[in-house]
Here is the input.
Amino acid sequence: MFDSVEDVQQRFKNARYIASRRISTVVYLSERMGRPVLIEGPAGVGKTELAKTLADITNRPLIRLQCYEGLDEGKALYEWKYAKQLLYTQLLKDRIGELIADAPSLPDAVARIAGQDDAFFSFRFLSQRPLLLAIQSDEPVVLLIDEIDKAEPEFEAFLLEVLSDFQVSVPELGTVKAKHVPLVVLTSNNARELSDGLKRRCLHLFIDFPAPAEELEIIRLKVPEIPAKLASAVVAAVQKIRALELRKPPSVSESLDWARSLVILNAQTLDAALVESTLTMLVKYEKDLERVKGALDKVLAP
Amino acid sequence: MDERILEFIGDLRRAELRISPSEALDALSASAEVGLTDRETFKATLAATLVKESRDLETFERIFNLYFLDLQALGEGIKKALGPEDARVQDLLDRLVDEEGLELDDLTELLMRGEGSEMEMAIRAGGQNAGLERLMYFLQVGYFSRKIQDKFDWSAIERDIEKIMRMLEAKGLDPGQLARIRNYLELRLEAFNRMIRQHVERELERRAYRQGEKLTREVLSEKPLFALTPEEVAQMKNVVSRLARKIKDALALRQRQEQKGRLDTRRTIRKSLSYGGVPMEVFLKRRHREKPKLITVCDVSDSVRNASRFMLQLVWSLQECFSRVRSFVFVSEIAEVTQAFSTYPVERGIEWALKAAPVDYHCRSDFGFAFSRFANTELESLDRKTTILVLGDARNNYNDPQAWALRLIRERVKGIIWLNPEGQWGWGIGDSVMPMYAPACDLVRECRTIGQLGEVVDNLVHHWWRRGR
Here is the structure.
């Protein structure tokens, strides 16, 4: 699918995502080795976006499984549509009656009904959840398992099983094997330690806040109408704000929002009043706001 | 190349990165996929397959740079050091070889004309049998450099240099030029020797990276707490936070092993109503692990202050392992310091508790008074889920021990664990009233070193609450 690491990098760039050498290498390896990628890093550095772009450049549909506390197999893999099964048996009561009408004995009747098992335990009555969808899909897909750290450790162990063989067993139907090995991307915000097993299985990628040059490239790419001077001023300011030890330092997506709002306001340069009035785009906590306002002259110093 | 990667993995393991055999295999097959042409790509490949904790990335980076030396940068560095003379003299030597039939020893050829990378490779080859695996201390660097130097035949080089100089003289170069050329040749010799030394130093660093740190940690965890110097107290903070992480990691592992519990009849029947009484969906009772509530009561008089400091740090770094933590400090008056930990980060909270809590730090310890006050004011707030962790040497300065107070407290709580920073041989001797308090405690442990402290807290987190009572 990819010819080389450079090819990956170029394709990401064409899809308007700046992938560093490290990121492209890991994506390339993941495709080559059929291994999931586990992406860690602070919120808003483009972890989820990476998976979306990957689906985009490979022309594969994206299947997303958002993790949360209490997520279980029923919601991640498959579930029988009990109500529908029940409804069908009720509606088909007559047919079932006919079927066993001339059965000579009870065991015989049971055997006849058992012969029809497949009618009720078939894919018709199975509601497929993201994991099963990804495995069953006729075309290759990108599977995004978002914020895996939010799910419980038990779920992680279960996931490990699925990700190591790319097959699941549905007791009534047998084993479903993946037709194509999907490209799997897991993201984590490090809310808790992930298990060693899962980490061992995955290629690990840590995405940190981008370096100034990279961030400038991202802003110019995503907000093309921004004046060059303003763009570098924005990057310099954001980098300095990140160094302030805030509760939540501004992420890339927030600096993009900020850049966009500055463009809308038709700004050409940054000055204290302008920054102060638009700061809420960048910093989301009251305490952080005060902190940045206090250090404003330092932030804006060239 | 595979061997070099495996050796590199060995270095990482020595620096305390956990790398499993399957990850090592991944690294090999992944690097075969990308090849070695691009250094950055190669580095990213190894990082993705071997380093699974972002906090280990720094160590990885350091060792990678030591092990997979950037030869190109090295060559450029040498070129720069040799200055503008380089091109001119090389030209001259070229002509001598071509026109005058100058013949040089292989080694001279390398030293006088080789690229930085070629020289480095020669040094590596020379170091192969020099016993570098025994290199452990900085003091050995000189010895091993010498040993590698001895592998090269220096007399041949001397001879060749003399030969070159004679030929140049015969060509009629003036003394000034000759001196400059000799100077240049000597510079190259020197550079080579320096490279040997740097090679040995690099070897030492990659072998011993973090070893010193590990050694300090081991020594510190066995050292009696009262004997720590202020610098050691500062270092100890890292030791304690490492200990806390270890306990937490182990806990995460254990949680996963816990299986689902028994059938939850109430919920199963309730749900079955929507299927006409058929239990289509079965619910299981999740076995709830109950996190212990913890109250720490620390003696903060001079003699045991260090022990209290580390216990507070350990307990508060593990607060998510407990459902609630409260902390009291006393000398003779007792005061609650929980507030400090909820307003300040752990470090500052401890400083506050040890220096600024509303107790008199300079009076003599009186355990009896402290316990009776505690029993009077806090008895109502205790319950069967609470475990009390007392830290003190039980040296009561001949005051009334008032052991009844501790017994009274014991009746209200799940258990009392007493940590004594004094060696067991001293309990009951002199003003120590440990034997009078011991019957009221579920567990009395000697806690002279950080290692012992870790053991007790680890036990508390993992086993204590399971005991049926």
Remarks:
- The longest strand of chain B covers residues 293-299.
- Chain B has a mean pLDDT of 82.
- The beta strands of chain B are 293-299, 324-330, 334-336, 386-391, 415-420, 443-446.
- The CA atoms of residues 17 and 369 of chain B lie 49 Å apart.
